[in-house]
Amino acid sequence: MAKKIGMISLGCCKNQVDAEIMLAKLAQNGFEILDDVDGADAVIINTCGFIEDAKKEAIENILDMVELQKEGVIGRIIVTGCLAERYKEEMLKEIPEIDAVVGIGSNKDIVDIVNEVLSGENVERFGDKACLPLDGERLLTTAPYYAYLKIAEGCSNNCTYCAIPQIRGPFRSRDPESILREAKQLADGGVKELIVVAQDTSRYGEDLYGKSALPALLTALNKIEGLEWIRVLYCYPERITDELIEAFKNNEKVVKYIDIPIQHADAGILKKMNRKGDRDSLLALVAKLRREIPDMVIRTTLITGFPGEGEAEFETLSDFVDKAKFDRLGCFAYSLEEGTPAALLPDQVDEQVKLDRSDIIMEQQYRIVLSKNDALIGKVLRTVVEGYDGYTDTYFGRTWRDAPEIDGTVNFTCGYELNVGEFVDVEIMGVNEYDLIGEVV
């Protein structure tokens, strides 16, 4: 009888791709992959270790599995992902019930590791980070109509607050032929929306060709039959070139949606973060994107409470948010991460002040979103059907303006039956805070 494997994958979509590659390897080698952990002979917890909240979530999940193990609900416990890579020495000391701790460079050996663990061995394996598989068959854990396409691994931007370069290693691009081959396989398998991801997608190809190859890659992806949408996340502001803007304009499948992790607008804070730009240059970039692509949806993330952020610096950030009027925005309180340069900076900000400032930014953004959503009433937006709510007799889904998991939804009616994964045109009739209300036309 096939051994049963459960998987809990935490954190970002890039980590999720790693999990899907491991699951495919296990399935190809005769393991039964469960939708739930109950009854699993082994549970793999693919962790995130990026910031404090993510670490806490990972540890809570591990401890939950330890309790299930004690109750006999599950068998062995295997910890993979960023937390395992970052705290390789401490993991087993702190939680001795763990049966295996696996660094990202040993993901490729997951079949052997699971077999060893199931035979009663305890395993600690930490291969070279560069050995993390960047391609391979995947067992998708997303809905079947969309998938993430990871085009690079690691990061070389060295932002002072970030531990990702320590955990994941330097930036390294995938071979374009490998990316296009995978994209075609996904499209042939029914995927309609590809979401292009990396720590910095706009840096793609610099290590291969000495310049960004993202525009050329998007143009090539645009030619793949069967795809409806190609969405791009995580483009750094200083690398948004005229060539990249043209790629958005000229490739009809590339949705006019861009995620730009800006983090702050005060020049002094950005310099301490080892980031480029200032309030004026960033506002100019936002204005240029909207001038060149009038319907462009711009998403960003910001950090409040970075060391040295006083009232004046925060006011610069707040004023920037009011003027930029981002379509989508997430704001997070600075998380002090050991081993990062920012952890050693003076003028650390009080924890409550960080949180209060984050709340202020999100309140500003809430008002901006309400205004922008009101402006959508009467417009017709291409939408993917994600499900049906029998209680309200309405469908729900995402417009092209929304990325899965992080953005809003649209609830809509239709005079005929729709299928999940189908694309329809929805006229927006009203709004409900972050979400839209409409009907199929």
What does this structure look like?
The mean pLDDT is 97. The protein is of the alpha/beta class and 441 residues long. It has helices at 13-28, 52-70, 82-86, 91-94, 110-118, 164-168, 176-188, 206-209, 214-221, 242-250, 267-272, 279-292, 311-324, 351-374, and strands at residues 4-9, 32-33, 42-47, 76-81, 100-102, 123-125, 146-150, 152-153, 172-173, 193-197, 229-232, 254-263, 297-304, 328-333, 380-389, 394-399, 410-413, 423-432, 435-440. Helices cover 34% and strands 24% of the residues. β3 (42-47), α2 (52-70) and β4 form a beta-alpha-beta unit. The strands form four sheets. The chain has a six-stranded parallel sheet with strand order 2-1-3-4-5-6, sandwiched between helices. It has 14 helices and 19 strands.
Give a short account of the largest sheet: 6 strands, parallel
List the total number of helices.
14
* N- and C-termini, Cα separation: 51 Å
Which percent range describes the beta-strand content? Answer: 15-25%
Q: How many strands in all?
A: 19
Report helical residue fraction: 25-40%
Q: Could you give the order of strands across the largest sheet?
A: 2-1-3-4-5-6
Computed CA radius of gyration, to the nearest angstrom:
22 Å
Please mark out the parts with pLDDT under 50 across 5 or more consecutive residues, or reply none.
none
Q: Shape, please?
A: globular
